[in-house]
Write a structure and sequence with these properties.
Order of helices and strands of chain B: EHHHHHHEHE
Distance between the termini of chain B: 27 Å
Order of helices and strands of chain A: EHEEEHE
Largest sheet of chain A: 3 strands, mixed
Helix content of chain B: 40-55%
Number of domains of chain B: 2
Shape of chain A: globular
Mean pLDDT of chain B: 90
Radius of gyration of chain B: 17 Å
Helix content of chain A: 10-25%
Oligomer: heterodimer
Largest interface: A-B, 41 and 37 residues
Number of helices of chain B: 7
Number of strands of chain B: 3
Largest sheet of chain B: 3 strands, parallel
Structural class of chain B: mainly alpha
Low-confidence stretches of chain A: 40-44, 55-72
Radius of gyration of chain A: 12 Å
Amino acid sequence: MFHVAAQAWDIRGARAAGTAGAYINRYDIHYVDPDGSQAGPGSARFGGIARRANPDLESQKNQDPGGRGFGRMCPV
Amino acid sequence: MQKIPLGPVRAITFNMYGTLLDLVTCFAAGFDEFLKAKGYSGSADDVVVASQATYLHESNVDPLLDGPRTPFGIVRRVTLSQVFYELKIAHTMDDIQQLVTTKATPTLFPGVKENLTRIQSLGKYNLSVLSNGDLPSLDRAVSGLGFPVDRAISAEQAGYYKPYAGVY
């Protein structure tokens, strides 16, 4: 399972439960976890899930340059 | 840049409020009108974002007290009241009721539907919304907004709020 959220506490909960997480930085707040995990801005974007899931969409990766639309998504 | 490891993944869950649903756009207009009427000169956007931190505190009081889960709607209203008290904004519970009902405009972040549709069309992943919202209101929101997800899961079903591990 894979949990996607824009709140660091939500990702920390998912990780504590053994679920991978992806943090979407909607409000320009960096993810910092007490275990040292960090997800800085610009690592990935929400649309990245769709593209990663389907390589045919990889060519569209530059169509969300601002990051605001899908947010910047960071695996942690 | 880290790559998102989707290879072994079969199910993807998405938080609803603030992740798929844009809380600032949902509430800022109603808040702005309310705050100006109360003589508050700060930013409505900031108040909406700040209320999320207070919400986390309020939603996790029950486990600390070893008590039953307080319904989401009540937690939201108590949260807003706490924020307004901290900002010294006079208010009534009727004000808050109006803010969370008639003055809210459910709004998705741009591109949410399109990308969820892309993922769902692959047929490889079970997609769910996993929210702290109570199940009836969550179901209404998911169906009303036309989310292309397989189901809505509420933390209510676990009897706790996220980030309690049992919810996930």
